[in-house]
Task: inverse folding
């Protein structure tokens, strides 16, 4: 199966993509499944799942949870993840039969060894990350013996499917947990991230720290 495991809809402050359009885009670019992983919300994923009826695209209910140690993605969720403590959030994900993914590990300076060991999968490839960070993420996954996955981190429809995880077998969840994956990635244009960062600042009304976030985002991508 060909999947994109990290996509945002309009239920994230920094995206305007409608959930139903994400499903259509996923079908258009040849994906078998797509995980909608909005910031601290499964609403977009639920809407996408409802709109996928009759489509060949499977929608994975997900959420990118903001925690005290950095972001944690939950996949195959049934309920919102309420805790913002990293280890508690991972426990919540597991309690509902979900998988905990560590996305873009090198964005968070607060990440700790106990959190890295508690997760199930590491996102080693991300279309919005510099190639150097992806290489470090691969090394991290190998050191921890964790299965590797990739995601586009799409905030625009045109980014959906830029990073693809090929999962062997018919059981997607089992293939992921067993690490039967291959990943291909194309980089998103830096302008895509800068514009969505600005959108997030406006929608969150984070005017004080917003400019600093935009500058840091540009430096991170360029280097």
Result:
């Amino acid at each position: 199966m060909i999947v994109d495991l990290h996509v945002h809809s309009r239920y994230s402050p920094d995206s305007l993509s409608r959930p139903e359009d994400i499903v259509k885009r996923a079908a258009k670019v040849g994906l078998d499944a797509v995980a909608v992983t909005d910031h601290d919300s499964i609403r977009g994923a639920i809407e996408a799942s409802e709109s996928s009826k009759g489509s060949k695209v499977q929608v994975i209910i997900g959420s990118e949870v903001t925690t005290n140690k950095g972001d944690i993605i939950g996949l195959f969720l049934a309920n919102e993840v309420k805790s913002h403590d990293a280890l508690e959030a991972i426990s919540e994900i597991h309690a509902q039969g979900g998988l905990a993914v560590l996305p873009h590990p090198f964005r968070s300076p607060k990440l700790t060894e106990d959190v890295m060991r508690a997760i199930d999968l590491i996102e080693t490839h991300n279309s919005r990350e510099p190639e150097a960070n992806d290489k470090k993420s691969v090394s991290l996954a190998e050191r921890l013996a964790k299965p590797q996955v990739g995601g586009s981190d799409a905030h625009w429809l045109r980014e959906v499917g830029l990073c693809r995880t090929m999962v062997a077998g018919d059981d997607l969840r089992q293939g992921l947990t067993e690490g039967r994956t291959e990943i291909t990635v194309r980089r998103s244009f830096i302008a895509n991230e800068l514009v969505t960062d600005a959108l997030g600042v406006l929608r969150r009304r984070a005017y004080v720290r917003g400019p600093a976030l935009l500058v840091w985002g540009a430096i991170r991508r360029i280097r």
Notes: The CA atoms of residues 48 and 72 lie 21 Å apart.
